[in-house]
C-alpha cells in the first residue's frame, strides 16, 4: 500500500484543521458505496444507551433498547465486511418495504439461533417479541401457513417452505401442520438445493441459506438422471441368485430398498439414484451371508468370508460417493452397518449406521416434502424412496 501511495497518490482535500482522503476502491464490482462515519464511536468499557446505528446494521442490543458498549461496533464492522465480501446485505430487515424490528430479529434468530435467556432478561422490550418459552411470540401469533412465502424470505429463496422452487411459484401448497411451532421450525430450517443439485437440509442456525440467497437456480433433483449403470463385474447368475435371496430374506424384515423402482432402473441399466453400483454391491454383500454358494466367499471353504468381496467394493464406492450423497448412498451405508454387525464387528457397524443417519439428516429425509410434491418437483416414487430409507435407518438404530 505504501508503494502504491508513492507511485499513485490518492486524491485528498486539505482543510485548515484536517485532511480528507479519497478511499482506495475495494475489490468488489457491485453493491452500494458505504460511507464510514466514526463520529458516534465509543471507546472503553463504559455502558451507553440509545439508537446509534443505521437500520440494517443495528446490533440486537440497540434494537432491544439495552445498554451497549464498544461490542456493538464490532457487530457493525462485521456487517460491513459481509457487504464488501458478498456484495449484498446480511440482513433484509424489512416487511412490505418498511424497516421492521420484528423481521430483523427473526432473521438474526434464523442465522444464529435463539438468544440465551439471560440476554432476554436485560430489556423489557424483549417481552414484545419473545414469550415465556423464548419463542418469537409475534411470529407465532401472526403466522399463517399461506404467509410462509413472506416470512421465509429471511432464510432462503429456494427453501421448500417459502412457497417457491427456483423461479417457480408453489405458494398454493400450504402447510399441513396444525402446530404453529412446527411451522415456524420449518420456516427457519428446511429443504434447499445444495451441492450437486441435490436436496439438502439447512437448520435454523445455518448461514448457508443466506450465502446462497443471491444465486437462485431452477430445481433439478438428480444431477444426471439418465447416465448408464456401470458394469459391476459380477457373474449375472450370481447376481440374480443373491438378489432373489435379498428380496425373500433380507428386505422383508429390514425394509430399506424400494423394490419396484430398483428393478425398473436395473432392467433399464440406468444409474438414476434408484439403482447404483454402490447400492447393488451392498445388497449382494448382505444377501451373500444367507447363501451357501462358495463362489460368494473370498475363501471358498470359510463361510465367514461370505460377501466380503462385495462389502470391500461397497466400502470403496461409499467413500467416493459420500462427497455428494444420494438416498441410495444412505441405504448402502445402512447395509454395510448390518453386514459389519453380522460379522460381529459391532464398532464399525455403529459407525456405518451413524454415517447413514447423518447423511439422512443432511438430505432432509426427516422433513415432510409435501410442497415439493404438490409443485411437481418431486415424484411420489421419490417421496416413497426417502421415506423407506429414513424409517429403515430409524428401525436399525432402535
Please, could you describe this protein's structure?
GO terms for molecular function: ATP binding; DNA binding; protein kinase activity; zinc ion binding. Keywords: DNA-binding, Metal-binding, Nucleus, Transcription, Transcription regulation, Zinc. This is Protein kinase domain-containing protein. This protein has helices spanning 2-7, 60-63, 71-86, 101-112, 117-120, 137-142, 148-151, 180-188, 208-211, 236-250, 259-268, 277-288, 308-321, 327-342, 346-362, 370-374, 380-397; strands spanning 12-14, 19-21, 94-95, 98-99, 164-165, 168-169, 190-193, 199-202. Strand 1 (12-14) and strand 2 form a beta hairpin. With 398 residues, it is mainly alpha-helical. The protein is 43% helix and 6% strand. The chain starts with a helix and ends with a helix.
